[in-house]
Fold these 2 entries.
Entry 1:
Amino acid sequence: MPSRVFGVSFGSQRAALAAAVLALPLALGGCAEEPAAPVPFKPVPAERIVKPGYTQRGEGLVAVDVRRERTRNVIVKFRDAPVYIDGEQVTDLMDGEHVTFYLTPGVHRIGVTTQFDPVVELRFAVDPRYTNRASVTFDKDHRIGIRRVAQ
């Protein structure tokens, strides 16, 4: 006579357990790269600005906003991302922060990195006629990237 617990045979219990084990990674995997809920970006604290000249307004300078997009991915959420302007480190960005640089019109290099990534640079044409915004994100392999975005 087959054994039964709670009126269900062990064969049925094993089948249900196997189905649950197979479904769990699919359920969790679908949530892995989901963006965080939209909330306002926080400015980088002044004490983390290494080269303050790039963050001060001035005659003839154009505002360039660099934002680090929020993520729920804990693998990259707590990594700092140093930011470079024309090869000089200016600050670092944490999850959900932004910094505004004031640059002369023309082409500049904006670079980002982490302790695990080489510096990734974006040739950024600064023009007072356009929105000057860049977005720092991480890809599915947890590698940092930067791109120009519209407002």
Note: The mean pLDDT is 85.
Entry 2:
Amino acid sequence: MEHCGVISINEFLCENCCTKRKIMKLNKSIEKLALENEEFKEELDYFKIKTFQGKILNSDFNFWVEFGNGVYLCDKGEKDNPTFTVICTQKTMIQIFKGSFEPFAEFLSGNLKIEGDLQYAVAFFDLVKLAKEISKETGGV
């Protein structure tokens, strides 16, 4: 586990739970960046609201991201009629939100399945990479 520090037995989380928490933490950092960084907010203004639905293979963990009109919002659960759905392993999903993977290679190798509007999936992956680049440059979020 990463950055857990000292925890009681009641607070202990399995690796699966830590991974889910990490995915949401990475998403929340992008959400915060959208509130605090004008450059990223401007990039989000290029889109009308679109919905990313994330589904983790062999897990009941689902989450969604709405992005566009200058905002980035995320939460656990499912959204009706998402623009696109990404289905993959926990490891791949974490790589997506770290901005540290090649989406086309993962898609072509079968490690990443996309249902729905592929063009917005590609745009979303680019937004995530941009968010990580801005975050590195500004030393924040």
Note: The mean pLDDT is 85.
